[in-house]
Specification:
The protein has 21 helices and 20 strands. The protein is α+β, with helices and mostly antiparallel strands. The radius of gyration is 37 Å and the shape is elongated.
Amino acid sequence: MEHALNKYFSHLQPIVKNLPHNPGVYQYFDDKNKIIYVGKAKDLKKRVSSYFTKINSISGKVQMLVRRIADIRYIVVETEQDALLLENNLIKKYQPHYNVALKDDKTFPWICIKNEPFPRIFQTRYVIRDGSAYFGPYANVRLMHTLLELSRQLYPLRNCSLSLTEKNIRGKKFRVCLEYHIGNCKGPCEGRQASEDYDKSIAAIREIIKGNINSVARQLRELMMSYAAAEEFEKAHLVKEKLALLDKYQSKSTVVSPTINDVDVFSISAAGVHAYVNYMKVMNGAIIQVHTIELHNKLDEPPEELLTLAITEIRQRYESRSPEIIVPFAIGYEMTGVKFTIPRIGDKKKLLELSERNVKYYQIEKERQKETVDPEHRSRRILETMMKDLRMTELPVHIECFDNSNIQGESAVAAMVCFKNAKPDKSEYRHFNIKTVEGPNDFASMEEIVHRRYKRLLDENKPLPQLIIVDGGKGQLSAALKSLAALELTGKMTVIGIAKKLEEIYYPNDPLPMYLDKKSETLRIIQQLRDEAHRFGITHHRQRREKATMSPQLMEISGIGPNINQKLLWKFKSVKNIKLATLEELQETIGKAKGTVVYQHFQEEMKK
């Protein structure tokens, strides 16, 4: 980090010192004059300064970025929204190495209204910036085809690629085709449809694609009534059929609430370096657009930053002008003419929950796909999440967890279980019989077993774990640290304690515990390790107790195994009492045949 600080004070300090307190976008360049990061800021000076003044508190990934900064440039803008838009455009243009990467796993189709005389409407997967209007992309291709079919049924348009310029039409260069004769086109190529009438159809189709069904329906009703008033009943009937088509289409839409109109809904789900954002467009109480994107979070950006970036990108992509955006939490940025809503109850809350379910399903499906292609993907993702949650500097590929086990101070034992790549490695499990501790002393027992375990690993030159988990609170954790210090292993691996009652995570020299999300994968793995160590320790403890209750004298009797041995000792408490027992008492305890064998054995022994 010293290298980066030297650069800062010698070259970057004057740049940062003279940054304005204005909203804007900053760009970091490396020594090859290549953009490596683009960021937005409400206050350029405060934001850029934080990379250098808070150097000890930022993550290792951000420190790597800072090390590479050779130059800083910035662009001042008028508003926070301008900063959001500019940042998004620059990221898409330069694709800097350290910025969040927006990923779409396929090219989704668009609806194109071509920029030409008598515009055609068709689907395409390629956006050409020639002035044409594009709507989409459509993750739900069936919805797109439904919209195109509805448009063709309501408003007959041409589907030919003829150049219908005014000069060509006047020169009678074209003749109507079959599409005209079957009613799918009104023949603009021969001048049978005026451009004004054609443009009205295009305008109505635009409104339908945008979800403004009600405004189109209103215009059609007014037209139908005017035809009826003029006693043009055939034309009125044709318009009525178009209204029926609109009603049928609207009835198939996912209706959430008729009171919610022109709203964008966003939700996010993050898992390690991957995050997913779901977008839903609601018009006139119906969901008309749903899309989910994946983000690759390279610098551990917080969810607020990720959601802000996704909102800017998606609204640009879909050309959304919705005046209200529903979000799960405050993003910290304002947009001109836009109200952000964080619903707590009601229809908008249900809409947000629907979006959150969508993003969760998408995330699960994506993870399944990745695990099918790469079986180790899940393990890496869990390890990356654990490293982030537990503030580690390396992946916890090798984890060991310790637990003590004794009942009323008797037969004190301990267990250690090992996970590698987030999975149990049972060949590395170990039992310990406590040797140096008298009585029930969990702290001293923990100190002994941790010392024995890692002294052996050091003596045998075997690899050490990246993470050690101690089942217990501050006392057990301190005992483990004492042993590691004696072996000169302090700081060479992360050590934590987990207290059972509230699932508190304790760190060395930190009086306050850390609480992980109860649903987090990190806590789930820690609990699995703790429970496995407890199970493994209890099994060994039970085996020792059972072995301790067995008498060698009874085991010498032919036909008497461990189970009969235990039954006799549990009933009569000692071998002496078994010798004095009557035949009836022995047979009642272990059966007639076995009872007779034991009775005769001791009768013959007493005769000797």
